[in-house]
Amino acid sequence: MTHGLRFPLLILLLLSGCSRSQRDSADDAGHDHAAEGPHHGMLMEMGDGELHAELVHGRDWATVYILDATATSACPIDRPQIQVNVTSGNKGRQFSLTASPEKNERAGSSSRFVSADRQLVEALTDTDCKCRIAVLHAGIPYGAAVPQKGEYAHQH
Predict the structure, then answer these.
(1) What's the rounded Cα separation, in Å, for the pair 143 and 3?
(2) Which of 72, 90, 94, 144 has its CA 20 to 30 A from that of 84?
(3) Model's pTM, two decimal places?
């Protein structure tokens, strides 16, 4: 089930070229898959479950993997970057994660996106920040809220 547009107008402008409505993480759709991603990271559903994002991070790096509907296999997309939008209070900031294709992925596509920006990692672990992964795939914007510390349980 689609829950309409959830990104502010600014985010939609940043994801220009979108031809269909925002595909955002939805409430539990009753499908069954692992609570943890194949890289042992946090799983977040995007759209109506067409895609999943898996977030793995360390002290000074973050990686987002784009996965298929089952959240078990890589789903390479043809974008050089994806974004994590961060809000805290009335301030916002956007971080870009750069494509870092796996060895078996065709040229120009990637399921792995990386950042070595320590400020992004700090935002991901700050309970005062709200973070949202933004992906554009096949002309459709997808988004997923990153669970805050203590509330992680597979997000639908």
Answers:
(1) 12
(2) 72
(3) 0.76
